[in-house]
Design brief:
434 Repressor (Amino-terminal Domain)
Length: about 160
Amino acid sequence: MNDLENISSLIGLTLRELRIKAGFKSYEQFAHHHKLSRIQYWKMENGNNFTLKSLLNLLNIHQIDARSFLLMVEKNNNIKQNNSGPATRIQKLIDYSELSKKEFSLKIGYKTLTALDKVLFKNQKIPATMCKKIAEAFPEVNIMWLLNEEGDMLNAKETIQ
């Protein structure tokens, strides 16, 4: 994942946290309440399609200054980097594949980044369907490692005798 994708995703995650803390269960409720474009706000929470002006507008809605917001983003980044679990394993696979996050998502059969981001940024359990798709796209990956970090990331190569 390149730096821009990482920062954008972390900003989106932090915006989502602010919305939930403000008492809005869905992005749609938040957008409607604040007279924002529902699609535009959804894209922002997913780390896409935002400008500095639109970000500052949201920070104003949340009554938070840019410095405090950036500290929240940094905290989320530190949590992500220090966390072991599903997000770490998926990120290791993306790094191993030498693909961008979008290319990796497409290779395992997802047209959008939504399913991947749920694991990467919410550290949710890797769904069985995603494990199956990864195993099909990357047969060398140890499925037990992917599911619960048992063994090595790659299957041991069988020696021919």
